[in-house]
From TrEMBL:
Domain of life: Bacteria
E.C. no: 2.1.1.33
Protein name as annotated: tRNA (guanine-N(7)-)-methyltransferase
GO CC entries: tRNA methyltransferase complex
Family, similarity comment: Belongs to the class I-like SAM-binding methyltransferase superfamily. TrmB family.
InterPro entries cross-referenced by the UniProt entry: SAM-dependent_MTases_sf, tRNA_(Gua-N-7)_MeTrfase_Trmb, tRNA_methyltr_TrmB_bact
Molecular function terms, GO-annotated: tRNA (guanine(46)-N7)-methyltransferase activity
PANTHER family: 3-DEOXY-D-MANNO-OCTULOSONIC-ACID TRANSFERASE/TRNA GUANINE-N 7 - -METHYLTRANSFERASE, PENTACOTRIPEPTIDE-REPEAT REGION OF PRORP DOMAIN-CONTAINING PROTEIN
UniProt xrefs under Pfam families: Methyltransf_4
UniProt xrefs under HAMAP family: tRNA_methyltr_TrmB
Protein residues bound to S-adenosyl-L-methionine: 71, 96, 123, 146
Native organism taxonomy: Bacteria, Pseudomonadati, Pseudomonadota, Gammaproteobacteria, Alteromonadales
Gene that this polypeptide is encoded by: trmB
Species name: Pseudoalteromonas arctica
Physiological role: Catalyzes the formation of N(7)-methylguanine at position 46 (m7G46) in tRNA.
SUPFAM superfamilies: S-adenosyl-L-methionine-dependent methyltransferases
Length: 241
């Protein structure tokens, strides 16, 4: 980075502007299937949310005052659609940057006929900062994020102190940040970050990990991992202040 770029960055920070310097994902432009493209065209007007529109009025978005669950990085969306189908008394917002996943999720949601799901196709950190009201979420879900397993890439992991401090504001008092990963090193990293994060309490009776709750569907990927002897770690931390 040049000296002038550094100066501009520091000046922007001092002015309180939101600057994203390290991203936790790599944008992969996968090919849309015809079904995914058709689902986006059909469902986006009713299920799509735009970051550019700013702060949401959640009761207006869903037409009710039900509790809201946000999932960051839902992949192809099968688990998210299953959760929304199984819990019609909850409202769900999924955030994903990869368009084929967005299309697949909308296709499944349309087929299931659910009305309690909305989708962002945007960077989750920016959505949380600009679109989700404070003290509005019952649960924030982060399931199987990119582990960035090489040590030199650990700074790209989304679960970092700054991220956790910011998301706490979006959770209601008693709201839960629920994480899951199949990388033990990342689970340890998550636990380390959360243990020192102010305003959170670990829901684990052993102060580390919790058994997979029924509300998180068991994916085919996870089932295969179990057969091969791979572990999966769930962490659930409750906002206390």
């Amino acid at each position: 980075m040049s000296e002038s770029s550094n100066t501009n960055l520091e000046q922007a920070k001092q002015e309180g502007k939101y600057i994203r310097t390290i991203r936790s994902f790599v944008k992969r432009e996968g090919r849309l299937t015809k079904g995914q493209a058709a689902a986006i065209e059909k469902c986006w007007p009713t299920m799509g949310l735009e970051h550019k529109n700013g702060m949401l009025d959640l009761s207006e978005v869903f037409g009710n005052n039900n509790d809201v669950v946000v999932e960051i990085g839902f992949g192809m969306g099968k688990s998210l659609v299953e959760m929304a189908t199984n819990a019609p008394h909850l409202n769900f917002i999924g955030i994903e940057v990869h368009r084929p996943g967005v299309g697949a999720c909308l296709m499944d949601a349309d087929e299931a006929g659910i009305t309690n799901l909305r989708i962002f196709e945007h960077d989750a950190v920016e959505v949380l900062a600009d679109c989700i009201p404070n003290e509005s979420l019952t649960t924030l879900q982060l399931f199987f994020p990119d582990p960035w397993h090489k040590k030199r890439h650990h700074k790209r992991r989304i679960v970092q102190t700054e991220f956790v401090e910011k998301l706490r504001a979006q959770l209601k008092m008693g709201g839960v940040f629920h994480m899951a990963t199949d990388w033990e090193n990342y689970a340890e990293h998550m636990l380390e970050v959360m243990n020192v994060a102010p305003g959170f309490k670990n829901q684990s009776e052993t102060n580390d990990y919790v058994p997979r709750p029924d509300l998180r569907p068991l994916t085919k990927f996870e089932q295969r991992g179990h057969r091969l002897g791979h572990g999966v770690w769930d962490l659930m931390f409750e906002r206390t202040e």
